[in-house]
Amino acid sequence: MAAAGTGSNPDMEIENDNKPTNHPKKNEFDLGADFIAFEDSDDEDEPSKTGRPPHKGATNSYFDRPTTEFHGGKRRRPVDEDEDPDEGPMTGPPPGCPWMGHRNYSKMASVPIMLTQELWDFVDYISPTKEEHQIQEYVVRLVRKTVKDLWSNADVVVFGSFDTMLYLPTSDLDIVLLRDGGFNKLDLNRLASHLRRSGIANEVTVISKAKVPLVKFKESITGIPVDISFNLTNGIDSGQVISTYINEIPALRPLTMLVKYFLMIKNHNEVYKGGIGSYTTVIMILSFLQMHPQIQVGNIDPMDNLGVLLIEFFELYGLCFNYTRVGLTVRDNGSYFEKKDMPTNHRSGRSGQAQKLLLSCIDPNDPTNDTAKGSYSLQKIREVFAGAYGALTQAVQNRDRELFMDDKRVSSSHVQFDDRNRVAADSKQKSSGLHRSTQVSLIKEVYQVPMHIIRHRQKIAKVFLDGTYQVMFGDPIVHSLDLKTV
Of 33, 311, 332, 379, which sits with the fewest C-beta atoms within 10 Å of its C-beta? Predict the structure, then answer.
């Protein structure tokens, strides 16, 4: 693999002898070879046309990012002044693609730019609005008040994706209770009973036998899922580390949102079910960015290349990574290591094939902790990553043929990118016949927004507009926070 993360050690091959079976067919790609062919570009100074805010001078805090425009109450990312992707007739978005509909992607200069812009629009769409974040804060206040009624000396601390602003529309709200003297297993049931009696919780479940005992429930007004753990501070520490990395590497946030959402819709995001948790997901993406050769030498700006980077992420962890022999760490700018050198206390105790297919990720906060040791469904996860790689590359190839290649030029199965920004090298001329055709999503085979998520967000918006929590806590009722992302 040439593009994503072979590292600097020639002996540390990221090759997998047992590749999933649902990868692209050999007549589509030569397996083991990078599908991206690098070519020299004559336009080194051509500006980015992804439509996202420029990387140079970009704010580190997601709260401080430039204000976006809106269309029908939804967020949209500003585009370059010299292009007008809204010009001309368009149809509505394809089913399951509510992030589309306001932008004519096919008028952009190349398919890779279209892909990156659509991914930016998707990230904007699934990111929380200010109203949604305000409701989350109200839920935290309600839980804190309820817990204090039971244990007045307990501290109620929110952490995880809420703290790092990496939560999805249906993400769990992670809360930890801290108290001198700690808690015992009886306290889990005591809290569960108290939550039921208080009326703030539905579907209360006690998970007492997990490595991290939890009380899980859905807040009764909004249906927001809440996980409460006890006297564990590692989640708080990991959130601080993630925030630091996001400030240093802005592209980490959108890529994390994309991979987290993908794992969620594939039901592979719960560690207690063998999936990959949020913390491990961030570490995998961070390692991918640290070890990427083109990023290492500064040849590409990750913020301008979300599309190709997402494809390469799925390729690396779906087809090429050697889970049997290789582990990863993001400490000291990132590296790979041989699993045989891993300390015994990192290993989960599984044997045979299950042990071989475990991912090993070293916790940057605690080098004795392997954050991925509970992700035992790696075989299935690897297969869905490979499937996403195949679906996205096929969509890019097909769209490139439709828009930019005539019959005489359709001879290669590779989408070709230049060496600077990975923009299609032969896409400077636009097709005049297809730019005002129907909307085409490049990501709909991998990303869709099901109706239950849309309804959940509508419910949250209604709760905010009704002022339910504002009345409960005596706050002034504000009917709109301009629907801008936080």
Answer: 332
